[in-house]
Amino acid sequence: MDTHTNHSRMKAIRPALLLLALMSSGLASAEEGSIVVNLKNIRDDSGMLRASLYREAETFRKEDKALQVIAVPSVKGAARLVFNGVPPGRYAIMAYHDENADGKLNLRLGMFPKEGYGLSNNPAIFGPPKFADSAFEHAGPSTPVNISISY
Fold it and tell me: Residue 149: CA atoms inside 13 Å, Cβ hemisphere, count?
């Protein structure tokens, strides 16, 4: 090979190496951000507060299928929970006050919550909550979401 061919190949490889370096440095994932959930109206400090993040209607409210789940000890009044590493997109959140700390939202008659709960956008609920009513856009580095817990 002549020197000209080697020089041309090196020019072609440089952009690929630069892209690889940027990806490995974390700059390629710079668009990921956080969703900051502000829970309000928490009745007391018993049990745990749980919040789950969803991206699809089919998995909404199925905690075992959530993208992320946060569980922290309960505090009376208000609490802040943060989902990190969230790419831009459309999401919905379900949060609840797991008063007996059993890891699930306890229901009366299999459908009515016995523990306090809330959803992103705080929609009025008539029947099972729908993803579309709670969905919001996460586009920036940080998206605030305020949820009122209802008992």
Answer: 29
Residue 137 contacts residue 125 (beta carbons within 8 Å): no
Distance CA 117, CA 96 (A): 4
At 92, list the tokens.
Answer: 């919905």
Average of per-residue pLDDT across 78-85: 98
- Among 93, 95, 133, smallest CA distance to 115 is for 95
DSSP code at position 9: H
Structure tokens at 96: 């609840």
Q: What's the rounded Cα separation, in Å, for the pair 78 and 65?
A: 26
121 contact partners, CB below 8 Å, separation of at least 6: 133, 134, 135, 136
3-state secondary structure of 62: coil
Would you say residue 37 has pLDDT above 60? yes
Length of the chain as a residue count: 151
pLDDT, residue 126, reads 85
pLDDT for 131 beyond 70: yes
25 band by pLDDT with thresholds 50, 70 and 90 = very low
pLDDT-derived band of residue 120, with 50, 70 and 90 as boundaries? very high
